[in-house]
Write a structure and sequence with these properties.
about 350 residues, single chain, about 0% strand
Length: about 350
Amino acid sequence: MSAIGYMMLSLGVSGLSSNTLAEGVSSGIFFLINHGIFKAALFLCAGIVIHVSGSIYMTDMKMSRRNMRLTWIFMWVAALSLIGFPPLSGFWSKDAVLLSCWEAGQYGLFAVGLISVIVTALYVVRLMGLIFSAKQAEEPNTKHEREASSLMLAPLGILTALTIAIGLAGPWVEEFLSDVFTRYFQDSLGLIAANGGLANSGSSVLVLDVLVAVASSAMILIGMVPAYRLFISHKSNPETILSSHSSLRAIHKFLWNRWYMEAFYNKVFLGPGLLLKDLAVRYVENPLDRLLNVEVPAFFAGVNKGLRKIQTGILSVNLLYFILLFVAILLALRALGVL
């Protein structure tokens, strides 16, 4: 969801200024391409570890990276690209989005996007730590772990190679997409779309690119270092840290209860609905049920009973009914002026 948020962020800032129109759209498309590649690799890796471990819960996996070294390597490459670790593909597209925010003058959004890098780095390293570096249970793990087949690893290898290749060619790919969208907006749509907010100052662009790259890399380290200590090297214990800080326990409780959104929904919407349930059943549901399932069938049953009385089965009587109906039709047509 955070990656989709980055794409929407770049598209949002692209409409705020002609200087960021092409840059914002191209960075969003670049992020979409990269995200599609490394996230597909992560999904394939997830399928492998779920199949091998027999569980969908990371806390139950406790995989051995020695027995599944290729899966471990491929998953780490895709995960680092998701974080935006240089020089993988996610690094260039993530920084392009941040740069678009800065050039659009949206410094608050730039700060939010930058800080979110810390969260991404933390939960990605936690993900890898819980799957491949978790402390083993007291009882020995009896799972027979083995690497996936070559047929399953081949797509992973291709996606990982693409992630690395796009990362190595990142600046050129980014420049190509920016030029394409600049020409499209100007030539096809007739819009004013400058190629970069600082297009007239090459040195300023270079300095800003470097500063954004340094800032985002610093955010990655801020998120990865504590996550590595907590979930991979196990030099720190999350339970111990939580138990010693009441503020962290409060935050953990808030997040564990899903921001209390379900409790709010139950109290504000579901609770009053349940209080009105008996009234709704008594004055709405039961009357409708009686009307549709009792009264309406009873009405048609009465009509049927009345019609049965006039149906004698005598031919002469039936002919009389037919003549009367025919005369009634002729009179109606005469009254309407048809005849």
